[in-house]
Design a protein that fits this description.
The chain is of the alpha+beta class and 305 residues long. The chain is built from 4 helices and 11 strands, in the order βαββαβαββββαβββ. The N and C termini lie close together (10 Å). Mean pLDDT is 85; it is low at 3-40 and 43-56.
């Protein structure tokens, strides 16, 4: 899991990032080995507050309606606002999945300009200072800023329309991820939101309803003091709500237990024989949904952790 599993989670985002603790000390950089599990998806709402152009790209003025027949609907007004009580580990305590989210198909709110021609486009560049400032990166992270890349890719929403997302990833895997998301765009696989996880999102109290597809989040692995693979930019969480992290009775995002029934396919669910696993497998990445325990259905990584 990548980002806190709260409101539109970013997926940073298990999220919405996965894990709510503080990162390990700088001295851990050379000696720590990330645990195989990933933290919670990012705690962000699919209708995030407008950010200033100094820190993030300006949101387009309007989001078009969903394509007829897509079944997509606007986010419930309460999404991302209901903070859950927490257990000793800081994970939210929830009674189940709200009816509005049992078959979640939320209209994407454009935060970056969508492709004008409706086609897939991608960019890879060094991380601009303004992008770094709104991310979770700091000198304490196990990678330098120079090792990361700011990647934008096209994706298709549950609304049937093309959108533009962004990721922070390790420079060694940037080209592979452009290939992956190009294949998912062509396959029509739906993604609700794809944004860089902020510190506020990573550290927010859980709302259990995050669904941000995300990569880099500087934080430990879930239930560990070791760095997550997300802290290296070598892991991606895809549609965390439809593809939760399951460890025994624990489900992250906390409001996603309806999606632990993998025998009831719904849009956005990742399956062993589906296009998402195939796209990542083609570039040598492995899927957390194939693990014995925990099952991390959202999680893909270059290292298998």
């Amino acid at each position: 899991m990548a980002v806190g599993v709260a409101a539109g989670v970013a997926a940073a985002g298990l999220a919405a990032g996965c894990g709510s603790g503080s990162p390990p000390a700088p001295s851990a950089r050379a000696s720590t080995t990330p645990a195989r599990t990933s933290p919670t998806p990012a705690r962000t709402s699919p209708t995030p507050a407008r950010t200033s152009p100094a820190t993030a790209p300006t949101r387009p003025p309007a989001t078009p309606p969903p394509v007829p027949g897509s079944g997509a609907t606007p986010a419930p007004a309460w999404l991302g606002t209901r903070v859950l009580p927490t257990d000793a580990a800081g994970h939210g305590i929830a009674a189940g999945t709200p009816p509005e989210l049992v078959d979640r198909r939320i209209v994407t709110v454009d935060e970056l300009p969508p492709p004008a021609d409706g086609a897939f486009h991608a960019t890879v560049r060094a991380v601009p200072a303004a992008v770094a400032a709104r991310s979770t990166w700091s000198p304490r992270c196990p990678v330098t800023l120079a090792e990361l890349r700011h990647v934008t890719v096209g994706f298709r929403g549950f609304d049937g329309r093309p959108h533009t997302g962004e990721l922070l990833v390790h420079r060694d895997v940037a080209a592979d991820l452009v290939t992956v998301f190009g294949r998912l765009f062509a396959a029509g696989y739906p993604i609700e939101r794809m944004r860089i996880t902020t510190r506020a999102e990573r550290d927010a109290p859980p709302t259990g309803d995050g669904n941000t597809t995300a990569a880099f989040v500087c934080r430990p692995a879930t239930g560990s003091t070791r760095w997550s693979e997300h802290a290296y930019g070598r892991a991606v969480d895809v549609d965390p709500f439809q593809n939760p992290y399951v460890a025994g009775r624990r489900v992250l995002p906390e409001l996603a237990p309806a999606y632990t029934d993998r025998g009831r396919p719904r849009p956005g669910m990742i399956t062993a024989g589906g296009p998402v696993v195939a796209a990542f497998r083609a570039v040598g990445w492995t899927w957390g949904g194939s693990w014995t325990s925990p099952k991390d259905y959202m999680h893909f990584s270059a290292t298998g952790r």
